[in-house]
Amino acid sequence: MRNLVALLTLVLFVGSSLAIAQDKAKDKAKEKAKPKAEAKPEEKAPPKVVLSKAEKAAVAAIKKLGGSVLEVAQNDGRIDVAYHLADGKVGDKHLAPLKQLKHIHSLNLRGTEVTDGGLASIAGLTGLERLHLERTKVSDAGLAHLKGLVNLQYLNIYGTKVTDAGLKHLSGLKKLKKLYVWQTKISEGGIKLVKTTAKGVRVIPDPEDDRRRAAIDAKRAVAAKKAEAVALTKAAGEAAKKSTEAGKKSTTAAKAAADAKTAATAAAKALTDAQAKAKAAKTDDDKKKTAAAVKAATAAKTKADKAATDTTKAAGDAKKAADAAAKAATAAKAKADAANKPPAKKAAKKDKKKAKKKAKKKKK
Fold this sequence. Notes:
Elements: H1 2-33, H2 53-64, E1 68-73, E2 76-82, E3 104-108, E4 130-132, H3 140-143, E5 154-156, H4 164-167, E6 178-180, H5 188-197, E7 202-204, H6 207-280, H7 284-340, H8 345-363
Parallel strand pairs: 2-3, 3-4, 4-5, 5-6, 6-7
Antiparallel strand pairs: 1-2
């Protein structure tokens, strides 16, 4: 018997060990089958910038001419150059030192006297990403010097004499993302062309984009107005329902007040009659009976008078509530009617004319 028990125990132990081993094998297989997590790309550190002697000399010259030179960031040694805050007139000669700058990130010439010829000094600045030329004397010819700015992402030519013809010089700027053209002679056709040739560029302002946005805004406004009209119509219906209910309550209260008044009048007459009978009573028994009747009639009159007073007040309150509900219903209906009323042709025409004038002004 002991041998049999030992044998059974051994069998169970071996079976259990095999089951555990099989489970472990399955877990390993599942682990191998799992897709490996993609390694997170390491963020690229800004390239280390070391200015050459020529660049340092150029920086000194720019500062001497009144320009501002700053590093992009603490860990980014590229430089931003700005002349827009310099004292005195800034012209083409101020751009000469820029030829030496290989590590320039942005250049701000806003409101300066720089001309087309002056931009020849920046033609080789391939690292330049941002360029402000707004309110300068630059025209189409000047943009020809920007062809080689392969990393340019931002260009502002607001308030210049640039036309559609000048935009063809920007077709090779594949990284250009934003182009500001306010108050130029660039047409909508020119904007379409530059968007076709310089893929991904956003032109500001863009009449086509403005119209699309205006159409979206108009649809949203119509939808909002419809939603408002639906809500106001629903509110008007609810207000009308409340007014009807308040009117019914007022009518019921008025009837209750009238009935209570009639009951009070009847109670007063009953008391008068009881008092007359008590006065005419001769025998002690009659006097006793009529006195009890007077007492009962007095109590009934007091109760009837109180009921009349209470119901009259309740009727007054109910009427005030009904009047207020009716007034609210009228106001709600007026709002709903106004919201559901189509816009007058004259007003719509005026709005259209105003929008057209605004678009024309933007174009200028």
